[in-house]
Design goal:
Largest sheet: 3 strands, antiparallel
Strand order of the largest sheet: 2-1-3
CATH architecture of the domain at 21-62 and 72-93: 2-Layer Sandwich
Number of helices: 3
Helix content: 40-55%
Order of helices and strands: EHHEHE
CATH topology of the domain at 21-62 and 72-93: Ribosomal Protein L30, Chain: A
Length: about 90
């Protein structure tokens, strides 16, 4: 009787690729006062007060400001939260 060799099974390691980055963009509007925008950014995006103020000022002067770079699900969630507070926001793939 001849010996049968056991097949060699190699388990492939899982492949992980980084998620594509998205930017959460705050747009200037004529509805919200700057203080309110700052407060919402601190609450929702968890920015420090001076960072929130700087981004609010950038959106006011330039028309828009990137408030966060993250993966798509979180970007959509943050955008939706900002919209629910009455701010104007969008996401863009970067």
């Amino acid at each position: 009787m001849t010996a049968v060799a056991e097949p060699v099974v190699q388990i492939a390691s899982p492949q992980s690729r980084p998620l594509p980055p998205f930017a959460v963009v705050l747009h200037n509007d004529d509805v919200n006062e700057m203080g309110r925008v700052v407060d919402v950014l601190v609450e929702i995006v968890r920015l420090q007060l001076q960072d929130a103020f700087g981004l609010t000022l950038e959106a006011h002067n330039e028309g828009e400001a990137i408030v966060c770079r993250t993966h798509r699900e979180r970007a959509e969630f943050l955008r939706d939260q900002l919209l629910s507070k009455g701010l104007t926001a969008s996401i863009e793939r970067i």
